[in-house]
Write a structure and sequence with these properties.
mainly alpha, Serine Threonine Protein Phosphatase 5, Tetratricopeptide repeat, two-stranded antiparallel ribbon, elongated
Amino acid sequence: MIFFLTVMTRHCARNMFLVVWLMLLATTPVWALCSNDTTLSHLSDTVRSEKYLKGLEAYRTGDYVTAFKFWKTAAKEGDAFAQCNLGACYFSGKGVKQDYSKALKWFRRSAAQGNDMAQCNIGNCYHNGYGVRPNVDEGVKWYVLSAEQGNAIALTNLGLCYKLGEGVPVDYEKAFDYFYRATEKGYPIAWNEVGDCFFFGIGVNECPDEAFYWYKKAAEHGLDVAQYNLAMCYAYGEGVAQNDSLAAGWLLKSATQGNVTAQYNLAEMYSNGVGVEKDSVLAAKWYEKAALQGHVDAQYILACCYYSGNGVEEDHYMAAKWYARAAKKGDADAICQLAGCHYWGDGAAYDYEKAIRLYKEAAELGSAEAMYCLAEYSVYDEEDISIAMKFSWYCEAAELGYVPAYNKVANYYYTGVVDKIDYDEAFKWYNMGAEAGDPDAQYNVAQCYYLGLGVEQNLLTAARWYIRAAEHGNADAQYILGTMFYKGMGVTQSYEEAVMWYDKAVKLGHPAAQYDLGICYYYGQGVVQNREKAVELWKLAAEQEFEDAVAALKDLKE
């Protein structure tokens, strides 16, 4: 119906507020009732009948059945305006069952009397195939007849035709000219179109200030798409000083009218606390409104909200439901998450075969996470799955920047499972994962520095990476740090530091740390000597069959 600006943002793995100016190309022209003085002025010799006016009054109060009855009577008596509006009732299904053929019939009767709105509506019917075989060329002819009488909607529709090259060659200057002529008739949709032309330089030089002026003019007259566009001007400071608060205010106006893109972006603002106070409940509310209108990103994010209980009560079944709805639209992330629901039986029935099939579908759509999951969860099968194939999936995921895959790819090179051991390549991938914040990769890159595999040995650098992994809760890294401080390897020797790191690993159940911390207590190294505590720790390690602890306890008995 009109052009408007939209945003593309992603969440969960799409979680940042990012607004991108794009055009959604909508090719459905506008149609309307005969209900304003501008339209009536083109038929100055036609008197509006009492029945027509009563029908108009009923229509404006929402009593469409009564409006239809009055207009039907007046139409049969030859009232051109009533004929046009009767056609509009059939067209929209208000007050009567929708019937495009009957709508076209009454539009024709009204147009035969020179009614410009009816002419415009006939153009719309031909343009889109309502009640007649689609014929864009014929539609343009009717728009021209209506536009020649100054009909703002027809002028706007002609502008769209020239903008899109439908029924006429693309001509942006003509498009702008028609839009601008329509603005002179006080038509908000035309104001918004002119705003688009100035913003994107369509048939006129780009001018954000002019774009802002026209968007604001249309927005203040209640046009939801213009309110959205105005919000984006404030969000990015295009033609006006940047102001997130005003952006949010105009998004709210547009979203309240049902503009799905505004609803989604308003949800993003509440989710991220941009222009408004951060509010996960209101974010979920607006995501749901957009999701119910079919916005695929909103459907995916709403599923994530239900899965994590963010702004809504945690409900994995609802999460799976919304993942499924987004998945039907081909959203790779949603397909991947739905696969996980079936793989784990979490919110959806356990179904291994369906899960793998969905992972493959998502992977084919470019989901790096799905590629990773295929490698992780696929069972070795002589016909389908091999070690080489798993490695290939990990590599594809890694090449696409999926961080957990870096460590997996490195492991293959480190162990030489697929081809041969290649420590240099292993270190490269471990280092990439470590720099990206993967604790496992941080531990492994520390190991490379510690052992001098794929990189020159450097105990100090090793210690630094062990610390980063340890701070993420890696018990092995905590234990090794304890040992390095205990012996002064690459770091200043300190029993106290050793005890601190051993203790962290002990809390995670690390048997070697239990044994070595026991040593510290037994000899009073870095702690007050406490041999009972030492024995207690050795018993814990022995329960995990740690041989040194078993031997120590045996020696004590002897």
